[in-house]
Amino acid sequence: MFxxxxxxxCLATLFLVFAxxxxxxxxxxxxxxxxxxxxxxxLAANLxxxxxxxxxGLASLVTIGFVLPAFVAFEPDSTSEGLSSRxxxxxxxxxxxxLAMAARGxxxxxxxxxxxxxxxxxxxxxxxxxxxxxxxxxxxxxVKSRSSLLAVTGILKPQIYIAREIxxxxxxxxxxxxxxxxxxxxxxxxxxxxxxxxxxRPPAFLKMFALADAAWTGASEVAADQAALTSGATxxxxxxxxxxxxxxxxxxxxxxxAAASHxxxxxxxxxxxxxxxxxxxxxxxxxxxxxxxxxxxxxxxxPLAxxxxLAYVLSIQAILxxxxxxxxxxxx
Amino acid sequence: MWLKRHFGARRAALDQLGKLETEVMERIWARxxxxxxxxxxEFTTRLAYTTVMTTLDRLYKKxxxxxxxxxxxxxxxxxxxxxxxxERVAEHLFGMxxxxxxxxxxxxxxxxxxxxxxxxxxxxxxxxxxxAKRRALRREE
Lengths: 332, 141
Prior knowledge:
The complex is a heterodimer of chains A (332) and B (141). Chain A is of the alpha+beta class and 332 residues long. Chain A has one domain. Chain A has 10 helices and 7 strands. Chain A has a 5-stranded mixed beta sheet, sandwiched between helices. In chain A, strands 2-3 form a two-stranded antiparallel ribbon. Chain A is elongated. Chain B folds into 2 domains: 78 residues, Orthogonal Bundle (Arc Repressor Mutant, subunit A), CATH 1.10.10.10; 58 residues, no CATH class. Chain B is elongated and about 70 Å long. Classes of the chains: A alpha+beta (332), B mainly alpha (141). At the A-B interface, helix 7, helix 8 and helix 9 of A face helix 5 and helix 6 of B.
C-alpha cells in the first residue's frame, strides 16, 4: 500500500502542477512572444524554450523534489490510508500525461531513426573528416536524390545530410556558410530542444503554446544564421546559399522526422522574413560589418541554478512537514 | 450587450473578409477614425456612397470596427491594430490546423501553400539583394 500510495500521489501532484502551471504560463508565453523582436535571436529562442518547458520542469521539481521526499520521510511504512476517488482520478490523468509524452517520444525517435536509415542507404560521405563544433564531431553525407535537403538530424550523434543537387549548385564558400548554419544548430542542441517541445506539446486549446513553438523555430533559425556569420561565413555567401536551396524543387525528405533542423525549414515565412531582414542588414554593412558577440545562452543560468539548489538543500527539512500536511489533505 | 459586443468582436475578427472589406480595413488602419463621407472620397470614382456605408456597417457588426455618433453621422475606428488582427488570424489558423480532425491534412496543406508563396517573395527579395551586392563588389574591384 505504501508504494501504491506513493506512486498515486506523485502522479496526481505531477498532473495538478503541470496543468496549473500550463494555464498560468500562457500570459508568460504571450509576453515573451511579443518581445522576441527586441531580443537577440539566441536569447529569444532560449527564453521561448524555457517558458515552454517551465510547466513540465516545475511539475517534475515539485513531485521529485518535495512530494516524494515528504512522503518517504513522514508516511509510516505500514500506512493504512486508502485511495480516494478524487486522488485516483488525478493520478490516472497524470499517468495518461506521462504515457502520452512517452508515446510521442518513442514515435518521434523511431521516425527520426527510420529517416536516417533511409538516408544512409542512399548516401556517401561528402568530406572524409568530420566537422566539429564545441567538441561535437559531425559527419557530413551527400544524399543521392533530387531534393532541397540540407539538414542536420539526430540528437546524440548529429549527422548532416545534403542533397547532391545542392552540392553541385552551391559554390564551396556558399556550402561552407550553409554548413556553418547547420553546425550552429548542433552547438545549441536545437534537435534535442525540438524533440522536447514536440513531446511536451500541450492540448490544442492552448493555442498560444503552438504559436510559441513556431516562434521558437523562427528564432532558432535566425540565431543559427547569426552564429554562422560570427563564425566567419559572409552574409553574401549565406544569403546566396539560402536563395539557391530555396529555389530547388523537390520533396523535403525530413519533414516528418522531428529531430532535424533544415537550412530552410518547410513553412518558414515568418522566420524567413526576419532572416532576410537580418541578412540585408549584414549585406549592407559587409565587409566592415562586425557582428557584436552576444551571449547565446541565458545570462546567469549557472549561478541561478546554483542558488536554487543551495536554497533547496537549506530549506528542504523545514518545508517537508508542510508538504506532508498538504499531501494528507489531498489523500483525504 | 457588452458581452455580446466583446465576444462578438473576438469571434468575428477571425471570419474571412471580402476583397472590398479588406480594402476598407486597410484604409481605416491608414487614416484612423473616419466618417463615411471622408472615406467615400477615396472610392468616389468606383463605389457608391451607400456601398461604403454598408461595408462599414458590416465591418462594425463583425466587430472589426468601433463607431461613435457625432451629430447625425457615425465616425468609424478600427477595433484592432493590424498586428492584433494578424495575430488573431494566425491563432485562428493554428486552431483550425490543430482542431480540424478529419480535415486536418487539407487545412494544413492550404496553409503551407499560402506560406510558400510568401517564402517565394522573400527569396526573390533576397536574390535581388545578393545580385546588388555582387554588382557593388565588382565595381569596387
